[in-house]
Amino acid sequence: MSTSVKIRAKAKGEKVVVKALWTHPMETGLRKDKNSGELVPANFINNIKCEAAGKVIIDADWNATVSKDPYLSFSYAGNKGDDFKISWTENNGATGEKATKVK
Amino acid sequence: MKPSNKRRLFLKSAVATSTIGVAISAGLITPSAVLASWPESAFTAKKSADAINALFGGAAAESDKVMVDVADVAENGAIVPVKIKTTLDNVENITLLVNENANPLTASFNIQPEVEKEVSIRVKVGKPSDIIGVVKADGKLFSNKKHVKVTQGGCG
């Protein structure tokens, strides 16, 4: 299943409030499949980057212990109409990104 | 996707793979280095202090200028909202560890000055545990913690 992210980037004065919600199982590799009894392989987002107006402002490494369907929220100094982009890498090498404008 | 694009992608990946393959066989880079810069030794450390040391090369001093915001009791350990904030200046990194998890290090955020000194994220907590927040500011390490009880574990 492919990973996706919903981003809300909203300006409040000179500040932009970002809320991001991924759809991802975040498998630790320790969980057993209920039917087969076999371990479900580790599958998790291990790096995310947030880019505001072309500059990487957050570069974060994650473990599989971030909850399933990861949620991240933060604020930064920015303005309405600015470009905002989130990109990510998964432990199996998959990558993805999504760009939006600050509303 | 148009056939020409597909071909281009294939060529790209073939070139990339062979370059890395050659580099590995020549002993230039280890396989873990190929997987970008994910600090594996820090993420697989079994103790918080070891993880912090592997990540930053030092220990953190306790400080009430780091605030860990988490509920006293979390009903579902699979989804525990945590907020870490700080009043320190020149913050470079905010890191979160769940002390009792098998691998405590959960998330490490390198942040630029534009970012407000506060991040919120949801984490898994296997059993009652201290949630540790580490902040690197002015090149120094500071930490604080808060205990959370979980009624249903979130790992496994």
What Rg of chain B do the Cα atoms give?
20 Å
Number of structural units classed as domains of chain A:
1
What structural class is derived from the secondary structure elements of chain A? mainly beta
Distance from first to last alpha carbon of chain A: 29 Å
Element order, helices and strands of chain B? HHHHEEEEEEEEE
Number of helices of chain A: 0
Which chains have the largest interface? A-B, 33 and 35 residues
Task: Please provide the count of β strands of chain A.
Answer: 7
Beta-strand level of the residues of chain B, as a percent range? 35-45%
Would you give an account of this structure?
The complex is a heterodimer of chains A (103) and B (156). Chain A is mainly β and 103 residues long. Chain A has one domain: Immunoglobulin-like (Sandwich). Helix content of chain A is 0%, strand content 54%. Chain A has a four-stranded antiparallel beta sheet, with no helix packed on it. A three-stranded antiparallel beta sheet of chain A has the order 1-2-5, with no helix packed on it. In chain A, strand 3 (45-52) and strand 4 form a beta hairpin. Chain A starts with a strand and ends with a strand. By secondary structure, chain B is of the alpha+beta class. Chain B folds into two domains: 3-34; 43-150, Sandwich (Immunoglobulin-like), CATH 2.60.40. In chain B, 26% of the residues lie in helices and 36% in strands. Chain B contains four helices and nine strands, in the order ααααβββββββββ. Chain B has helices at 3-25, 31-34, 40-44, 48-56, and strands spanning 61-62, 66-69, 73-74, 80-86, 91-98, 105-111, 118-123, 129-137, 140-150. In chain B, strands 1, 3, 5, 6, 8 and 9 form a six-stranded mixed beta sheet that branches. In chain B, strand 5 (91-98) and strand 6 (105-111) form a beta hairpin. Chain B is globular, with a radius of gyration of 20 Å. Mean pLDDT of chain B is 84; it is low at 23-35. The interface between A and B is medium-sized, with 33 and 35 residues. Strand 5 (71-77) of chain A pairs antiparallel with strand 7 (118-123) of chain B.
